[in-house]
Amino acid sequence: MDRTAWIVVALCVLGLVAWEIYVAKQRLPRPAPADAILTPTPALSETTATASPIPSSAPTLPQASPRPALVAVVEKTETLRNSDLELHLTNRGGGISEVVLLKYAAEENKRVTLNLPDRLPIGAILQDPATPNLPEYKLSRTGDAVQFEYVTPANMTIRKRFSFAPAKEKDNYLAHLDVDFVNGETTGQGDPGYFLSVGSARAVHRTDYASFTRLVWCVNGAAKGIDVGWFAPSSGFFGVVGQRAARPYYTESVKGAEWVAASNQFFTTLIVPLSEKSDAVWGQRFDIDPTQKLFGIEGAMHMRGFDLKPGQTYSAHFQIYAGPKLYHRLASMEHNEAEVMEFGFFKLISQALLNALNALHSVLGNYAAAILALTTIIKLALWPLQNKANASMRRMSALSPKIQELRTKYKDDPTRMNQEVMKLYKEHGVNPVGGCLPMLIQIPIFFGLFTMLRQAVELRGASFFWIHDLSQPDTVAHLPILGWPINVLPLIMAATSFWMTHLTPKSGDPTQQRMMMFTPIIFIVFCYNFAAALALYYTTQNLLTVLQLYVNKRQPVAAPTRVTPPARVKKRR
Fold first, then answer.
1. Is residue 173 a part of any domain in this protein?
2. 290 and 150 share a domain?
3. C-alpha dist (Å) from residue 73 to 65, 135, 166, 234, 469
4. Which residues contact 404 (CB under 8 A, 6 or more apart)?
5. For the segment 393-415, what is each residue's pLDDT rounded down to a tens digit?
6. Residue among 143, 144, 142, 124 at smallest CA distance from 134
7. Does the reported pTM lie above 0.85?
8. Terminus-to-terminus CA distance in the chain, angstroms?
9. Domain that includes residue 127, residue range
10. pLDDT, tens digit, for every residue of 273-328?
């Protein structure tokens, strides 16, 4: 390599180091066990409502207010359980304080739990979630349902009923919430609008990024959301542009939200209002361990108000999905619940790849084997195109001496030099971009996998040799003092990339050669701290490409010859 190339390589390495430092700051530390999490601030059991109701026509951002006096609530609980879920219900606000996922293991031999007992219960009805009132409901149980009842100071009786949806053979993560508002006064009265809590979310792995802890909602079939980083202060770009203070709450009026969810990397609590759509969303970040930059997020949906005559009842119905973000399960539901995956621009590719991966797993019984099979299928589909690209690059390589002559001859006239090089390509029937086409096709596949694997809960816990979890980086150790992770598979991927680059026929364009040389560095930056499944895919892809290059190398390729242009036929007068 020349001096310029070495400088670029050095800059890339420095960029990789800077990226690792940034990632180390962004990644959340290891969460505490479920039974040892620091009490979030403020504790909801110490608050009562002091703010006026928020009008449903124009929900506004609730303002912080002093903490009111402690309200004593003798907490009573009840449990609903099916084959996949365990709901812990509390009379404090009449909702679900915690959800236990019976088939998903967490750290320290515990089960994955959704929501936190010290935050807003799922299904709690609030006038202002910034200063929530969680009154004591009367709790009772009838068969497989739990009922709550509370009479407001205005003599409005609120009745809630939690129950499970009809059981399926598997993936039973649905529950129902039915709410009745009964006017007990002798005169008409109503509600100007209320918030319904969707609960809270927090990270589940020590390697989770803050951006995975999100509040998400769906409008017209499209998901929108914010993460815990939205609330943080910002010093802006070099301390000049984009500065802002910390933001305590998030509130946005929406034109009919189909659902609102509190979500992390692999799990979500998603509530669908069945009677009518929500007209606003609210969110708040809370501290779990601020010294370690460990935060959670909780949210609520706003529902329109109603008027009731004496003795009249208003009923509202909600569907609760509390469980893993299983695409096939969410896609089978009726309110665009699968949009909580937030696949974005590469949605169609991500969906197709995830469906193919699950189909292969159903046959092979192992997700690592399914990734290897999927990689092989993609490679075989692109094999003929790659053959043509390799042949094109070999023909370009054969023209290198002539191209170098032109570069020397016209070194003082870059425009003329480029014209002569393109003329040479045309005369010999060589396409200068023919070798790039397979790479261009693989870019959307790569980013489709990148997007899909961020939330593919199916890979969580899947092992492969030394890799204990394909959904996480395959860290085997940490560097002393610096503490940086040593991830083996991305390093193997980089080595196979350099091997592949070395075998790839060199064209006469130095710029293209440098691009091929720097590609492994770019991909290691993308993959180093990402799911090991992505590095496994790309390592396998590289090895198959190396095999194809060796096969192509043994096949003769005709030397480029001057192409005779077709003779022009003179038109008769």
1. yes
2. yes
3. 22, 8, 33, 39, 42
4. 508
5. 777 777 777 877 887 888 788 88
6. 124
7. no
8. 61
9. 31-342
10. 999 999 999 999 998 877 777 899 999 999 999 999 999 999 999 999 999 999 99
